């Protein structure tokens, strides 16, 4: 049963915190204390629900969970979404128009083949049927915890189905919460994953932390800022740094996500770190 968290927004020195919509399996509900986004090591115990939003005047942060770090001691780099899309089939009952409970054939899970309860909570579900509506997931049972069949998984969605869905309909999309599986990979190689924010601390596996999703931030680059005339735009590289200039744009294989625009000193080159206005990622 959902527990709706209602609270007023109170600014403390230009800072305030917002609870996310309810989802099962999270801790820290109702904690509105102003965090230190640069606290070393992150939180070994969860202090806020994942997706909690913290606003510090012109910067916004999202609370997330770090599941993998491939190279340590690299702060101020992009954190990637490590979740992999599921392509699933509806269960034997599926759902009628207005239903908030939908059944999935648990045997069609191709990534989380033995899915735990609430592993998809906070993610999104899109049935492969018209209309192609997206539904936020509040909770899910285990892959064999369905109410109709022991081989099915029940998911509860935030809003009822726009229309009935067909039993055994294949190729439905099930996506995890992108802030529940944060990955730092300075070594590179995140070919298909997208950057969902910037870490301001050296991330630690199996901890919760705040990542910046918009506003001014320094991000390392191995290129000279200002080395090319009128250089303004930055693109995410596969190692979480930013690059720009000739040959670096949305057409380059390793730089296909826009990071933001430069707000630093472009009259002289700067190879260490770019001061950019981060493109909103929330």
Please tag this protein with its features.
5-stranded mixed barrel, mainly beta, 6-stranded antiparallel sheet, 282 residues
Task: Please give a structural write-up.
By secondary structure, the chain is mainly beta. The protein has a domain of 93 residues. It contains no helices and 17 strands.
**Low-pLDDT runs:** none
Shape: globular
Strand arrangement, major sheet: 5-10-7-8-9-6
Order of helices and strands: EEEEEEEEEEEEEEEEE
Number of helices: 0
Strand percent estimate? 25-35%
Question: What quaternary form is this?
Answer: single chain
- Overall number of strands: 17
Q: In a nutshell, what does this entry contain?
A:
The chain is mostly beta strands and 282 residues long. The chain has no helices and 17 strands.
How is the topology of this model organized?
Layout: E1 15-18, E2 53-56, E3 59-69, E4 77-81, E5 86-88, E6 101-105, E7 124-126, E8 135-140, E9 152-157, E10 172-175, E11 182-184, E12 195-199, E13 207-220, E14 233-236, E15 242-243, E16 257-262, E17 273-278
Parallel strand pairs: 3-11
Antiparallel strand pairs: 1-2, 2-3, 3-13, 4-11, 4-12, 5-10, 6-9, 7-8, 7-10, 8-9, 12-13, 13-17, 14-15, 14-16, 16-17
